[in-house]
Amino acid sequence: MKTQYEQIVDVQYIARGKSDNIPAMLALAQEEQVRPAALDVKRTLLLAIDVQNDFMESIGSLAVNGSKADVQRLTQWMYRNLESLTQVMCSLDCHSMMQVFHADWWLDKEGNHPKPFTIIRYADVRDGIWRAANGHIALSLDYLQHLESEGKKQLCIWPYHCLEGTSGAQLESQFTNMLYFHSAARQVKPILVYKGQDPNTEMYGIIKAEYDDNKFVNHAVLEAIRAYDAIYIAGEASSHCVLASAVQILEYFEHDRSITSRITLLIDCMSPIAGFEEQTLQQFEALKEKYGIQIKLSTEVNL
What we know:
CATH topology of the largest domain: Rossmann fold
Strand content: 15-25%
Radius of gyration: 20 Å
Number of helices: 10
CATH superfamily of the largest domain: Isochorismatase-like
Structural class: alpha/beta
Order of helices and strands: HHEHEEEHEHEHEHEHHEHE
CATH architecture of the largest domain: 3-Layer(aba) Sandwich
Number of domains: 2
Strand order of the largest sheet: 7-2-1-8-9-10
């Protein structure tokens, strides 16, 4: 390509809150003569999970250590493989203040909201240690009971993050530059998938919530995944939203090894929340054993 990586991504501004520069990316892409994505014989998909400002170290309210380097490696991989990367699908966390995993939802006996990273259990609410500030006691108890009975992650009170309309909810700027350079050069619109807008539940994965009465499943995303010959997954955080997304996709296609074997985790383009490092690696290895996925460094994958 004529355009150099450094013309698209300024690594010193990764996770610095700098604005993206889409007009410049479109101008650079117009100088390229790259085959349109619609003509790809082998169709490849990058599933980029929550590459958003609030998960970026140094600027995010729920910063993931290692995320800056992850973005650099991911955008380098996208650049090297741009002529063969058919499509990019991005999930975006999108929340309000009053959600079950935010402090506003809960009060203790003294009327105080919980501090970030407080774990709230079914017994805590049943015994009156915590109560729902909005009066949704029955709903909250039902939710917590299902989390425990189904072996889901415990309810963690996260710092306010990815609030709808805030800069924290936006895609990281240098990733965005590469996303739209790819879009213009390959003549394909990126797919943006919003998740986590139901106030009554946590939604780590791109496909469905941890628990909800309506049992929503994002079949549009699943059918899109089915259409690709190779799927690469990256993003933040590996321990939560990346892991949950991978598990949900693999469980849906568990009886079709021809699809699950198409999935590769770009392991150096994702990082876990602190304290979940070893557990996350073990869970990824279990997925590899069960479903035949691949786990590779981005430098090992050339499309």
